[in-house]
Amino acid sequence: MSSNFVIAVHPDKKSNGIAAAKYGAGLLRAALRRQGRAAIVVATGASQFEMLAQLAAEPGIDWSRVTGFHLDEYVGVPISHPASFRKYLWERFVSKLPLPMAAFHFINGELDPAAECRRVGALIAKQPVDVCFCGIGENGHLAFNDPPADFRTAKPYILVELDEACRRQQLGEGWFSTLAKVPRRAISMSIRQILKSRAIVCTVPERRKAQAVKDCLTGDISPLRPASILRQHGNTRLFLDRAAASLL
């Protein structure tokens, strides 16, 4: 495990999300002071509610000098759908900022997936990512890289097939009414692209994530446990609440 892989445990989901946001905001402010502009990657899902709310409220960030990138999105889900990650990020983060961002590059899953992967891949290739805000799925996925994840592809964004465990998580979180309605494909930032981020802030609350956390932190680093690869990153901080850390 990298000496710069740090685990922080907080009492509950809310305090965990707030701590993650404050830490990430500090990294973002430092990047802006150092280089005048910055880029971030932002995740979605129920695990990110508190973190994103706090991040949007953090003082002293000139968002007009920050570019945002979207971590993943379903294929074929319109922006009007309650499960749309574009809708989620606009409503819960981008529209809440005190200043408009320099740009936020949403993934449009309604377009041709291969062409959309190339489009957003070309955009992120132009600007190094300073902070990636992410989570870990119930199946250990990182972004929508379900097991067995592709640890080798150099493509920034890839078209992926969602496994049943991932799709059941989306159903369980209330984004879809039936499993049959959960999409089977998505566009995801690749593992290697995530690892290019200068810093990673990974927020993982709730008891339902405890087994995945244990597997990814104590098992072998393996495509079968995609988020285990974070242990090799040079600057990752994992924020857990007590429930998520309960099996460690």
In short:
With 248 residues, this protein is α/β, with parallel strands linked by helices. It has helices at residues 13-35, 49-57, 85-92, 113-124, 164-172, 191-195, 210-218, and strands at residues 5-10, 38-42, 66-70, 72-74, 103-105, 131-134, 157-161, 185-189, 199-204, 236-241.
Count of alpha/pi helices: 7
Cα shape: globular
Q: Largest sheet, described in full?
A: 7 strands, parallel
Widest β-sheet, arrangement of strands = 1-10-9-6-2-3-5
- Beta-strand fraction estimate: 15-25%
* Unreliable segments of 5+ consecutive residues: none
Q: What is the CATH topology assignment? A: Rossmann fold
Mean pLDDT rating: 96
What is the CATH C level class, in words? Alpha Beta
Number of domains: 1
Element pattern in H and E: EHEHEEHEHEEHEHEHE
Radius of gyration: 16 Å
The CATH architecture term is 3-Layer(aba) Sandwich
Amount of helix: 25-40%
Topology (SSEs and partners):
Blueprint: E1 5-10, H1 13-35, E2 38-42, H2 49-57, E3 66-70, E4 72-74, H3 85-92, E5 103-105, H4 113-124, E6 131-134, E7 157-161, H5 164-172, E8 185-189, H6 191-195, E9 199-204, H7 210-218, E10 236-241
Parallel strand pairs: 1-10, 2-3, 2-6, 3-5, 6-9, 9-10
Antiparallel strand pairs: 4-8, 7-8
Describe this structure as you would to a colleague.
With 248 residues, the protein is of the alpha/beta class. It has a single domain (5-241), classed as Rossmann fold. It has seven helices and ten strands. It has helices at residues 13-35, 49-57, 85-92, 113-124, 164-172, 191-195, 210-218, and strands spanning 5-10, 38-42, 66-70, 72-74, 103-105, 131-134, 157-161, 185-189, 199-204, 236-241. The strands form two sheets. A seven-stranded parallel beta sheet has the order 1-10-9-6-2-3-5, sandwiched between helices. β9 (199-204), α7 (210-218) and β10 (236-241) form a beta-alpha-beta unit. α1 packs across α2. The longest helix has 23 residues, at 13-35. It starts with a strand and ends in a 7-residue tail after the last strand. The relative contact order is 0.20. The model has no long low-confidence stretch (mean pLDDT 96).
